[in-house]
Amino acid sequence: MDLEQKSMTALISAFARWHHAERNGVKIFDDFFAGKILYEDEKRQIAEIMSKGIAFFNPAFSGSEDEALRWLVDNQLSPSPLGRAAWAETTLRQAVCDGAKQYVVVAAGYDTFAYRRPAWAKDLRVFELDSPFMSADKQKRVREAIGDTPRYATYVPIDLAKEPVLEKLRALEAFDENTPTFFSLLGIAYYLSKENFGALIQGISTIARLGGAVAFDYPDEHTYTELTGERAKKQAMMARGAGEAMLAGYSMGEMEALLCECGFEAAEHLTPGEITERYFSEYNKAHPERAMAAFDNVNYCLAAINR
Question: How far separated are the first and last CA of the chain, in Å rounded?
Fold first, then answer.
């Protein structure tokens, strides 16, 4: 399997979710499906690449390859995908209780919500947007895992840097722009310029209705500067090495101003400390020897329509 043909960030995120679910009793987020859409040779290759790279992430580490992998997953790979997934699905559940009927996952990667769909989401229509290659690859993996793609899931090939989300969704017979919709933009703000990210939020605001919301994570204004935390520096270097360079960072004030310009308001805005307290504390109490913390320099924001 040639890993270079796929999004390494999407693969590593799925790997981290699988590894965490497989190895722990108390979980930050239980993605029990992630392992089903990763091939066994991908798991082996990623594990080998990561464990052999321990000196880059932790020069002082001493231990076996398995111990090195565990350290890397717990400290470098898992905090972002686990924390934001736990938060996004919590906010999605509340949105469904409030009347949301559609869930749009932008840059879906190997997100598995549609294949773990809980009872509270049984009437939710799911739209997965991603590049044509990723969309086709995802559908292939799902068919191999469960026999077919779910009837309530719609896959939308798109180049997010060039094609407006608004036009793509409006062209779909299955999408109802008059229905309250929840949008997930996890892991996106890092890789788009401020101009492109602003255009994405503006486009979503055009079709978002009262009761709709947007959940996303984003790097703060210190990211990529001398004030960046060590883990964030390593993450940025790893992404750049995979050809997926991180481009922008925002202060909370700057992000809230952008949202206001687009007709949204920040209904919830979490800092790393608040994320750790809310979503990591139960796991940390059960596993004090492997305590985890949300990624430094990353905030979560839930944006709601303010009109």
Answer: 49
Asked whether the beta carbons of 116 and 33 are under 8 A apart, the reply is yes
Query: 125-130 and 213-219: which strand pairing?
Result: unpaired
For the record, the structure tokens of 288 come out as: 């004090």
Rg (CA), the chain: 19
* Mean pLDDT value across the chain: 90
In 3-state terms, what secondary structure has residue 129?
A: strand
Q: How much of the chain is in helix, strand and coil states, percent to nearest 5?
A: 50, 15, 35
Q: How many CB atoms lie within 10 A of CB 26?
A: 11
* pLDDT score recorded for residue 2: 45
* Residues shown for the chain: 307
If you write DSSP's letter for every residue of 100-126 in order, what string do you get?
Answer: --EEEEET-TT--GGGS--GGGTT-EE
The model's pLDDT over 187-231, given as tens digits with 9 standing for 90+, comes to 999 888 899 899 999 989 888 776 789 999 999 988 766 556 676
Q: In whole angstroms, what is the distance from residue 242 CA to residue 69 CA?
A: 19
8 A C-beta contact, residue 120 and residue 96: yes
Q: Is the pTM of this model over 0.85?
A: yes
Q: Residue 39 corresponds to which tokens in the numbers above?
A: 């091939």
Domains and CATH numbers, the chain: 3-77 (no CATH), 79-305 (3.40.50.150)
The answer on pLDDT for 167 being more than 50 is yes
The CB-side HSE value for 244 (13 A sphere, CA atoms) comes to 18
Side chain identity, residue 87: W
Are 239 and 245 spatial neighbours (Cβ–Cβ below 8 Å)? Answer: yes
Query: How far from 158 is each of 106, 108, 133, 280, CA to CA, in Å?
Result: 9, 11, 10, 34
Which residue in 6, 17, 174 sits closest to 101, CA to CA?
A: 174
